[in-house]
Design goal:
alpha+beta; 4 helices; about 15% strand; single chain
Length: about 140
Amino acid sequence: MKCFEIDANGILTVTASIVSTGKMEKLVISNECGRLTKEEIEKMVNDAEKYKHEDQEFKKKAEAHNALDDCIYNMKKKIEEHNVKKSVHHEILQVMKKVVDETAKWLEDNHATPFAELHSKKVYLEFVCKPLFNV
């Protein structure tokens, strides 16, 4: 997460933190001789706004990737549960296991996949494995 602040004296304070680790760094840029001009500071602020959307999209994609990874893990775990093996027909269980394994392999090979495709894979996986949750 990044934060940009400009005070009344033209001093730019940039704060960046890594949400997962809590690590935070702060940088203060003052308008001393030989430093950034007002136009340069404005450009930096505009660039920050421009990249804000990209950062949000990256976060959205990372969350979708993690959600699919969690879904794969939960489906594998559910397939292995003893009561599921007794309740779901063996052939259906094998199809589910194959789809889960294929999805896991696909996810491993496709790290640069857009959000929509990751979400679509998760929805498909949940649909195929729906009988596991009707037990």
